[in-house]
């Protein structure tokens, strides 16, 4: 037996590992399984190169848990290690067997070798986050001198023991003696959950425990002529070793993509709208499948639906910094050995490979959307409401995506027609260009509540967009900054003749003195902190009184509620304009009424009608309005 001290530059690396290197203790299982997979894959590579000529046999990785013995064991039949390799790769942390492997098999095997994660690199020491003691029993695939099996043992301090022992088969067995503060990992369901989380798509079969299933009984049928079945207990295989994203797109049908989606999200019942298959090998390695889910409510969006893998090893579902923020709304899988693991998000955001990968994914998403739009615009329009939020979010937050998306972004009007940005500008140019040559986009955020205003606009020959999405206030603001000489205004932001100002203005039927009197009459009935009385010379066909809310104030408040704009605006009280049409016959009648009681009743009725049209008349005021309306009819 040999005793020694692990060659590390610090006195004891294990407290550092526990505190800084890994944020989640559960990562130890991912690292152990990854090592076992790497050892197995390396052996398969040696076979393909003719460097190992014996039968591979069963290469399944076995995970065992013994609650009484307080152990977790991971067994593989990979390349194993010699005593010298244990000393080099386990005791001398600075060395990396992956680098050694690359150097040894450069040339025709480099591409295969490059895809392997380092065998027993620093990740092995994550086992001490949960263990009091770790044992390694290993035997190399090599024959001859130095091929004896080796046992290595360490209790979490720099001291270790290493000795020769007996082991029939090649490969490695790692046994963890679980610490008392890590009892959670002695629960079968906890381990099963971790294996499904981290190992669901690893390329080597993994077994953990057994599961009951039913098999047909050959030659036996029941009374109905159906084949009899019997309950059997079989090893529980954790993983799908050949997931869809590792296959060529030409091998897959749409149904295969749907089946894989359900494999990723078994609890999800909605079908994705469409998918994007990523398959790049230069200048970086990237595979994956991204799905467009139905997104109609920003509040329901979860940004943890893209799973990041490294050579089929699950890494994280927190992909901020790896993909642009708006792409995190997608679902699916990204797999790349070029994304560094176990580093900070700030590092990822500055990493050159990650930036290239992020840019490529954005391009592929843009390409796919443009392809669908060009090839089947009718289908694209049907899906628009489900992908609108995603595209708007991308255009708001990503300049490159905006430039691509502006060709297939759609605007919908109140008649249900869809237009591209350029098509809509041409559609309204003749009617909705104001006296300052600015193109005015009228929109409604609630077609039902703003029905009267929409009607007034249409009577003038104007077109009204529907902008009722949760991100539309921000999207409108972004478009105004991009589109030249353009302005968006909600259809109820002002009286219709003021929304799109033309050269001519209609004269008023009232004198200046009458206007002052009229203004005073209504100001007495309104809350001055909430309403400002404004007199306008409008058509007799326009309402006698109406309520509007200035575009800037309302938009800033909407944006503040979602984040953005001016944060203090969301807490400011609502403020409206109470607009009086000085040319309406009812207003003329009001001014010609000499009886004070009748004038007061008409004023209150007009005020309440305006409030009622905006659903702002409630409680006692609404009751009094109904009573007064009945009296007028008598």
Task: Describe, in plain words, how this protein is organized in 3D.
Residues 8-12, 94-102 and 108-121 have low confidence and may be disordered. Helices cover 36% and strands 22% of the residues. β2 (61-66) and β3 form a beta hairpin. The strands form five sheets. A nine-stranded mixed beta sheet has the order 1-6-5-4-7-3-2-8-9, covered by helices on one side. It has a five-stranded mixed beta sheet with strand order 10-11-14-12-13, with helices on both faces. The chain has a three-stranded parallel beta sheet with strand order 18-17-19. By secondary structure, it is an alpha+beta fold. Among the domains are: 2-208, Heat Shock Protein 90 (2-Layer Sandwich); 244-382, Ribosomal Protein S5, domain 2 (2-Layer Sandwich), CATH 3.30.230.
Mind summarizing the main beta sheet?
9 strands, mixed
Query: Could you tell me the radius of gyration in angstroms?
Result: 36 Å
The number of distinct β-strands equals 22
pLDDT averaged over residues: 84
Secondary structure elements and their pairing?
Layout: E1 2-5, H1 13-21, H2 27-48, E2 61-66, E3 71-76, H3 83-91, H4 97-104, H5 110-114, E4 131-139, E5 149-154, E6 159-165, E7 171-178, H6 188-199, E8 206-221, E9 227-237, H7 254-264, E10 274-280, E11 286-292, E12 306-310, E13 313-316, E14 331-335, H8 345-350, H9 352-375, H10 377-397, H11 399-405, E15 410-412, E16 418-420, H12 421-428, E17 439-444, H13 451-459, E18 464-466, H14 472-482, E19 486-490, H15 496-499, H16 512-523, E20 531-536, E21 545-548, H17 551-562, E22 576-581, H18 585-592, H19 596-613, H20 619-633
Parallel strand pairs: 2-8, 12-14, 17-18, 17-19, 20-22
Antiparallel strand pairs: 1-6, 2-3, 3-7, 4-5, 4-7, 5-6, 8-9, 10-11, 11-14, 12-13, 15-16, 21-22
